[in-house]
């Protein structure tokens, strides 16, 4: 099968492109490389050194003999997007090509608008190209568990059956996004759902939890193939930040009370989930939703796990509680369903089994690259 990975130079996209190539898929990468530009604008670098995409692809071909096609351009440019799809002719499109940081979207008006335009318009362009010329192509779109927010009821997988005034219906699960980024993903979901209904397209929305880990079987083959490890206050996750802080002797920075609970999964499970979705396409006219995570942790849970692992490695680890720069519930109910991907064969990796190898050891190995000016949060929801 021919699979086009949009956003294939990014964290999830790069690991997915190599994994699918290694599984025998014919892979193309479409990317504007804007993620690297955002790093330059923020004056921050990923902890692990990332080489130019052309070098990465060439090294992969040298190691495996597998060719990956590269298309550099912006999916908000409809003409470029259409030309690329006609040239590559994908049977499935994996869509990672979005600005994925909540803090980035909350910096100011410019960044909020940039996020919405890039994400919503880009996805809408993909839907129109599919409608016009690739109606049988399967869109596998990376969503986010953050679309749901933190409701005081169980979170179902995309849809909920409601009985009201004696009548019953199955409806899209209510969304309570917590940033302009998460709002853009909600808009995407609505647009994709609508396009499937009226044009008969097929799409799978993978509402992904927070991803962790650097290594997959593919990215670990060579230094040129290594994946990103972002730790800064804009693109870094709390778990990445804690591991880097532990490595350099900085107190772990828990925002607020630390009861914020989210779904998590290993990058190795991300790539497997993508393959499962591709190998089991939904039928025409259906917008299918999977919740893509394997475990749930609070921020305090993560901090305590990192502290315990760090101490076992001889590190001096303390935990500090900071004023929360975000507007979010810090103590809440959170129980989300995630049975669909498990039912299709996902065999999860667990954080307790990989924390040292995939994160802390990398943090220690590259700790000289840490820029301490980017450890603390700089973006506030209150401004």
Structure notes:
With 383 residues, the protein is of the alpha/beta class. The protein has one domain: Rossmann fold, CATH 3.40.50.720. 39% of the residues lie in helices and 19% in strands. It contains twelve helices and 14 strands. The protein has a seven-stranded parallel β-sheet, with helices on both faces. It starts with a strand and ends in an 18-residue tail after the last helix.
List the main descriptive attributes of the protein structure presented here:
383 residues; alpha/beta; seven-stranded parallel beta sheet; three-stranded mixed beta sheet; 14 strands
Topology:
Layout: E1 2-6, H1 11-22, E2 26-31, H2 34-42, H3 53-64, E3 68-72, H4 78-88, E4 92-95, H5 102-105, H6 109-133, E5 138-144, E6 159-164, E7 167-172, H7 180-199, E8 202-208, E9 210-212, H8 238-248, E10 252-255, E11 261-266, H9 267-279, E12 287-292, E13 295-298, H10 299-312, E14 319-322, H11 339-343, H12 351-365
Parallel strand pairs: 1-2, 1-4, 2-3, 4-5, 5-8, 8-12, 9-11, 10-14
Antiparallel strand pairs: 6-7, 11-13
Helix pairs in contact: 1-9, 4-6, 6-7, 8-10, 8-12, 10-12
Q: Quickly give the structural class.
A: alpha/beta
* SS element count, helices: 12
Number of strands: 14
Counting copies of identical and different chains, the oligomeric state is single chain
CATH architectural type: 3-Layer(aba) Sandwich
Under CATH, the homologous superfamily reads NAD(P)-binding Rossmann-like Domain
- Let me know the largest β-sheet: 7 strands, parallel
Element order, helices and strands?
EHEHHEHEHHEEEHEEHEEHEEHEHH
Low-pLDDT windows of residues: none
- Counted up, domains total 1
Reading off the top of the CATH hierarchy, the class is best stated as Alpha Beta
Let me know the average pLDDT. 97
| Portion in strands | 15-25%
Q: Which shape, going by the Cα principal axes?
A: globular
Give the % helix: 25-40%
